[in-house]
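Design request, tokens follow.
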């Protein structure tokens, strides 16, 4: 289920719409596979009726665990837009948390050796506000998410700089200096910087 576009603000775009890493489902899936294999083997081997019944009961319970875990996985979302972070959880009772990108002070992530192998980890966001630090667990490729958040923060600063620049006509050297700052932060590529610089120099 994707994040509803109707909940976006004007001019806001969805950059990432993620669910927890698939490893979140590995526990109940493994149990279901093992118990199902045991149940089939017991039936094929004509095991005592009590054993077969016990295995079927365990299979039903493990399937219930899997369905419950899947429902939580499907209703947990981590959304990055051009303006904010949105985290939502809950099957029946819903919980939500939103962090404006301009309130974020620091972003880090934590991975064990196994997390690095499966490319999962916890993202840690420090922001201005009452909660201060927020941990978002079991996300896929947390390093790439961290980079994308920083990129969107820089885009937001660039938009703000453009609005501020629009209030006063900058000289061509000032505009080139501003473009160079954006290139240094990775907002503009070298090719984009060179093209825009050439356009400005042609106006001199």
């Amino acid at each position: 289920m994707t994040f509803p576009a109707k909940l976006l603000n004007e001019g806001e775009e969805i950059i990432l719409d993620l669910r927890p890493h698939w490893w979140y489902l590995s526990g109940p899936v493994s149990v279901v596979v093992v118990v199902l294999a045991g149940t089939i083997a017991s039936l094929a081997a004509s095991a005592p009726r009590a054993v077969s019944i016990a295995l079927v009961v365990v299979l039903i319970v493990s399937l219930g665990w899997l369905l419950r875990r899947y429902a939580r996985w499907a209703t947990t979302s981590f959304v990055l837009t051009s303006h904010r972070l949105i985290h939502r959880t809950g099957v029946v009772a819903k919980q939500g948390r939103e962090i404006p990108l301009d309130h974020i002070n620091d972003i880090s992530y934590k991975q064990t050796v196994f997390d690095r192998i499966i490319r999962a980890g916890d993202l840690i966001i420090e922001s201005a506000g009452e909660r201060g630090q927020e941990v978002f667990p079991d996300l896929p490729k947390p390093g790439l998410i961290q980079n994308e958040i920083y990129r969107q923060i820089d885009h937001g600063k660039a938009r703000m700089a453009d609005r501020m620049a629009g209030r006063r006509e900058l000289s061509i050297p000032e505009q080139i200096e501003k473009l160079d700052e954006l290139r240094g932060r990775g907002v503009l590529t070298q090719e984009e910087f060179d093209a825009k610089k050439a356009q400005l120099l042609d106006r001199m």
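Comment from the thread starter after seeing the answer: thanks! The chain has a mean pLDDT of 86.
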